[in-house]
């Protein structure tokens, strides 16, 4: 069987020759005794043993991974650790017990990320992420492994572990070692680790953000929905980190997130994307982009749906209010005038919003009228300025968009005001 396709259940059916390892002094007599009590026992028995003597078992497992390199044995011990943490993730705290202060509990897993087959790498990544996340916190920050004052040996520091993890995760996102599980495994661990400031910094420095963008796309299968959710979770966590804002604003991140929130029916996906939008709304050009991408209309549609998550409903209301403020800013006459003078006109909200034209129509009287539509004497002024002839020349313009709008303009000029209002832009 391919090592990449091994399951934890299959690995745990093996018989490992622990006595041989004791004979060769690779494990101690105490270690052998602990393993005999633990090996091939029911989950309830193992749970009790871990409750009674958890740190001792962690020490045995870590020492085996440090000293024994036989692939089958390494896989077996990783499967044991994976099983115990899956049953109860809080057991990750056992790796930080005071009795293990002089034990380098990180190093074996960090080394196995690069040395082992896929089964070994995948388990090492998952276990290491859980252990790192469970390390004890202090008022001033985090107690890092390897900084115990009474330590006689130099232990692997938490920063080294996190940087090593980020390097491995970015490698998986670029060129996954497993065709179907490499990227999901990396994203799953990344979503857990990006709460760490040093991980955000390392990930951005490694140019990892661009590796997330292609994964932001509408999903249909359960597996792809979970990957999408965890990817969006990563982007949400990164949206709290100022150095990454500019990249998110200038990449395809926002259009892709809008596509996802427009088409997704999964509440957890919609929630994390809406929370991301709320974070980015006031940052740089993000708010203006969201308006241009049609997010206000999408938010109205989302608000009409029955969501059970109160945080999502609150975020939708806040996002709606924030987008309205952005539309007001984008619809200022001064901004429109600047666009005209610079020759950089675009179909932004100010061009599409009838309220903008009605509220600002008298401003267009400056400099012998720039453009007339809602002005009470508009038709007369347009004729006086000979605008019809100038628009007619644009009917043969090389741009189809210009030709279309020139035609609409002429139709409005020829039709009476009563009928011109029926024309659609």
Question: How would you describe the overall organization of this protein?
Answer:
The structure is a single chain. This protein has helices at residues 8-11, 18-23, 29-38, 43-67, 71-87, 107-115, 118-133, 158-174, 182-193, 197-205, 209-212, 222-238, 245-250, 253-263, 267-280, 286-292, 295-303, 310-330, 333-342, 349-352, 354-360, 378-384, 387-393, 400-414, 417-420, and strands at 137-138, 141-142. With 425 residues, the chain is an all-alpha fold. The protein has three domains: 1-135, no CATH class; 207-362, Leucine-rich Repeat Variant; 375-424, no CATH class. It starts with 7 loop residues before the first helix and ends in a 5-residue tail after the last helix.
In short:
With 425 residues, the protein is mainly α.
Topology summary:
Elements: H1 8-11, H2 18-23, H3 29-38, H4 43-67, H5 71-87, H6 107-115, H7 118-133, E1 137-138, E2 141-142, H8 158-174, H9 182-193, H10 197-205, H11 209-212, H12 222-238, H13 245-250, H14 253-263, H15 267-280, H16 286-292, H17 295-303, H18 310-330, H19 333-342, H20 349-352, H21 354-360, H22 378-384, H23 387-393, H24 400-414, H25 417-420
Antiparallel strand pairs: 1-2
Helix pairs in contact: 3-4, 4-5, 5-7, 6-7, 6-8, 7-8, 7-9, 8-9, 8-10, 9-12, 12-15, 14-15, 15-18, 16-18, 17-18
